Amino acid sequence: MDPEYIRLVLEPVVQYLEMGRWPNPWTIHDIGSSYPNAIGHDDGNAEQQPIEETGNILILAYAYTKASGSATWANSHRSLFQGYADYLVTNGFDIASQLSTDDGAGPLPNQTNLAIKAAVGLTAFGALFNEAKYTDTGKDYANQLYNNSLATDAEKTHFQLQYPQSLNNGFTYSTTFNLYPDSLLGLNTFPQAAFDMQAAFYPTVRADAGVPLDTRVPWSKTDWQLFAGASSPGPNAATQNLFINDIHAFISNGINTAPFSDRYFVKPGPTDSGAPDVVGGYNVYRARSTVGGHFAVLAKVAGSGSLGG
Questions:
Q1: Cis peptide, bond prior to residue 25, ω within 30 of zero
Q2: What pairs with residue 265 in β-bridges?
Q3: Beta-bridge partners for 98
Q4: What's the pLDDT at 268?
Q5: What angle in degrees, to the nearest 10, is found between the helix axes of 132-142 and 112-129?
Q6: pTM of the entire structure?
Q7: DSSP of the chain
Q8: Higher per-residue pLDDT: 290 or 192
Q9: 147 vs 87: CA distance, rounded Å
Q10: What does the pLDDT look like over 167-181, one tens digit per residue?
Q11: What is the pLDDT of residue 272?
């Protein structure tokens, strides 16, 4: 796919942010809540995902530059991106209670997946503009989260939902799909051992129909499963294939009439409106654009010569 699509998607967001009408120091979640009206949120009253979206815009800017081979567009918006990188330096490690992209699960402080996004966002900015101090900060975050076991369990078998340990009520984990851009873009924010750790862990928490997203919920997300599988495939791609096979089983089980849902029950859980409370039943979401994440494995393969390290 032509990398210009990345720029075309980002351009209206960047233009709105550079107008100064968005009053917050982090990146906006969307530029309009009533499609197709892209009128922004001048009052700042929008869904707030400060760390998640701020990391996202830096990662996407770097992805576009690396895939297109041109830094012209990124350089024309350097001041904006600089401000967001600085925001992550200040706020991306001691993280206030907030939503992640998994907004349905509610806010938490110091979510491991958000700290991973901040670390990768900073190394992306550092690579984008050859700013070593941002790369170093991102890698320092990663070093503390993984090498120093701040965000892992004591035995270093997996990443926990939050850090430090005192915030976790017993055993916790999260599907660390935010490791995917680090792997896809060859940023080397986290060591290979962190990816291997997750690959070995995911099969141990697989439920009846897949790996629950984290310890709070009975469902999983198909796109994020494939982000996790693509970045942590395991020996002979065994973990990656586990995710792929579970998703295939879900879409072919014959019990769902909704268009491809990206969220489904992998073990018995509470009923949500519109969702059959059965294992393998879809959970509310229908025919969303997030299913583009299903191409995560293919993107790793196709991009290995241009996006990887």
A1: no
A2: 219
A3: 108
A4: 84
A5: 160
A6: 0.95
A7: --THHHHHHHHHHHHHHHTT---SSS--S-S-SBTTB----TTS-S---HHHHHHHHHHHHHHHHHHHS--HHHHHTHHHHHHHHHHHHHHSSSPPSB--S-GGG--BSSBHHHHHHHHHHHHHHHHHHT-HHHHHHHHHHHIIIIIT-SSB-TT-SSB-SBSSGGGS-SS--B--GGGHHHHHTT---S-HHHHHHHHHHGGGG--SSS--SBTT-SEEEHHHHHHHHHH---GGGHHHHHHHHHHHHHHTSS---SS--SEEESS-----TT--SSTT-B-S--S-GGGGGGGHHHHHHHTTTTT--
A8: 192
A9: 24
A10: 888 999 999 999 999
A11: 54
Give residue for tokens 């390290």: 309
Which of 50-59, 187-196, 274-283, 296-305 has the lowest average pLDDT? 274-283
Q: Rounded CA gap, 241 and 245, in Å? A: 6
Pair 157, 130: CB distance under 8 Å: no
Q: Give the pLDDT confidence score for residue 251 in this predicted structure.
A: 94
Q: Which residues of 144-182 are buried (b: 16+ CB within 10 A; e: fewer)?
A: bbbeebbbbbeeeebbbbbbeeeebeeebbbbbbbbbbb
What is the separation, in whole angstroms, between the first and last Cα of the chain? Answer: 19
Flag whether pLDDT at 105 surpasses 50: yes
Say if CB 270 and CB 283 are below 8 A apart: no
Characterize the bridge pairing of strands 263-265 and 219-221.
antiparallel
- CA distance linking residue 89 with residue 91, whole number of Å: 6
